[in-house]
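Following up on my earlier thread - several people asked me to post the actual chain instead of describing it. Fair enough. Here it is, all 452 residues.
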Amino acid sequence: MTDTTLQLAVERFRAISKANICLDEITVLAGVNASGKSTLAHLFHSLINLNAVYPTSLEKYFWDKLSRMIDAVEELKWQIDHPGEIRSSIARYNEHIFQPQLHVKSFETLLQEFDRFQAESLDLCQSRTSSDDVRRAYSAFVRELKSDFESAFKDLEQPDPAQIKALISTKVREVLEEYVEARTSRSYAAFLHGDSRSRFLLLENGKISLAEGGSVVYATDFGSSDVMVTSPLKPLYGVTRSVYIESPWMSMPIVREGGLLDLHDGFPALKRAGRESEESLFSVLSGRLESVEKKMDALDRIFAVATSDFKWMYRRNDGKSFDLEACATGIRSLAILNAYYQWGILDSKTLLIVDEPEAHLHPQWIVEYAKILVKLVKKLNVRLLITTHSPYMIRALRNVSAAELTQSKIAFYLAEQDKDYQFSYRATGTDIAPIFKAFNVALDEIASYQED
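Reply from S.P.:
Thanks for posting it. Predicted structure:
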């Protein structure tokens, strides 16, 4: 069986001096505030999802580079076909005469299609130079090209259509060659690091490496030479998508393009991995712990439905419905999980990241939430990454895992301070004693205020 274990190694990045995190079925990052827990979580999230969207995002990146030249030729063709008319900006935006599908067509086919496309305009323009409308349209076309591509066209005072066609074909060939190379090697660092979604990979210093089954998937190193070295981005075979739940007070994901879209992370909508379920998550999760079963029965009617204006609603057991945005934090926390479940997104290919789930929750709700997370792993084979500084959450995750799974399926990491603002992460396995020892500093501080 292929080993698909994910391992993230980080050095000298932000608050992290050194971390080597190996994802288990449940992985828990514990530590004080500002110790780099969320940074590690975001790195996992960004690398997994960038890997998934790399082919389509790469195509969009290069299409944007091509479109400036294509738009200019389209405008010229339209002016020739509609002399004296003014095309609205909306029509200009929506009308695309030439639409290359970069990923399914060969390099030579794309060049031939583009040459035929621009020939329709430039050859027609050359044959109708007696028309005032065509001459005006062509002059505007040349001015636009000179403005956008000064370096390529600066030496041509009054280029004729044949010269223009040759220059544009050369520029298009350069872009397409660059795209084919990037698609083949998967190492287009300029795109990867220029993408707003990879902001956590924009190193000012440091070293990051993600490996699957011991094989490096992505690595980047910004060393003393001030040169960033980036490895090719290889495909993932185990976990192929990441869901990041940062806070129940963040907006719920919205329904778009047949999936759920998180407005905050910039990635495309997560598509259904399986069939959409009308069944509540909490009626599916069951287990040996009687208290959990009772809680699930009580939550069976909590569900999220998208109305026509994409509002998420919570329906209470008495039949009354409420806008989820106005509901209690605990309800929202559970509804977010339920939404991803009902849309068929939580499965063995998913890494579910929950950043400090204990925030705003009563201690009893923290324990119940931990039970639900463990049951997600057991029933749906989801991989789980939790960041926390709650002793309730840590003990609940460890004890429920021991009852529902085995302790060997959970791994704890503790952030320990090396020097000011810098932390290393120590793997403690299933042993939570070092974590509680670190947390006891707060209790000692409280005790220092007791009266003699």
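Residues 37-81 form the longest helix (45 residues). That should answer part of your original question.
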